[in-house]
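Internal tracking record. Fields below are filled automatically when a chain is submitted to the structure queue. Please do not edit lines marked as system-generated. If the sequence contains nonstandard residues, flag them in the REMARKS field before resubmitting.
Queue: standard
Priority: normal
Entity type: single polypeptide chain
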Amino acid sequence: MNWCLSLFLSLAMCTIARPALATYLRLVPVFRMNVDEANKKVTIAWTVTNEGDEAAEAVALDFPAFSEAYTMSSELPPRSSATKTLVFPFAKLGIDKRGTYSLIYRINYKDANMFPFSATHLASIPLPPEVSRVLLLHLEGGTRPVSIVQQRKKTMTLKVQNASQKELNLEKLEVLAPVEILARLDDVVTPVRLAAGAERTLKLSLISSQALIGSAYAVGLLVSGTTEGKHFSEAVTFVANIVESSYNTRMMIMALVIIVLALLWWNPFTMRVRKRK
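SYSTEM-GENERATED OUTPUT FOLLOWS
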């Protein structure tokens, strides 16, 4: 009977095995910014620190809006940092009036197994005087973490409400998402005019394409526009957890049960055959 138990445990371990992951990887970015109005440019100096206990490979700054990426470090050991300074002309950032602007960027990297990861961040660019908060961004179910089943579509409902007493012109609605998650807004055409107190319901579709089960990512929506000649930029974010299909889990358990029952039946049958001989 012992050999049955040993075989069962071996099969179970093979069935639930997952790709080897880095022990702990956490890349934390901070930046210093200089807004040069005279020369119409923004200089941003990034420092990315590996707060994990394993080296990160191929660390890079990625700017999806420009389809540009810049290498920061080929290998970033634990508790070490890498820096990168970039200059952006006002025109590239779309800065043409006073207010607040946002730059979406990602930190891309790989773990010890060379599996790619990314994390999305925002850099707020102020050009005073800024606009007071004018939007209320509501996520259906609140901002608690949501679960996305691997390779399945998840649709979120977002409500954008004008909290001001003035009409708003929503010029851009941009999804904040890592490379591993395919995200898009359904049936949205910009610009969108929003009267005082009015709201608009949006559908955000998410599909985990490359993410590992058990990973967690920051996802959200960035809304930019103008009111009374000034620019505003506001965002709502939430955590998306990548989970395995409950159907797959049930099937795995059923398969293990069948294997155990087969082994339990086969062992007495074999003993009876031997006794007859």
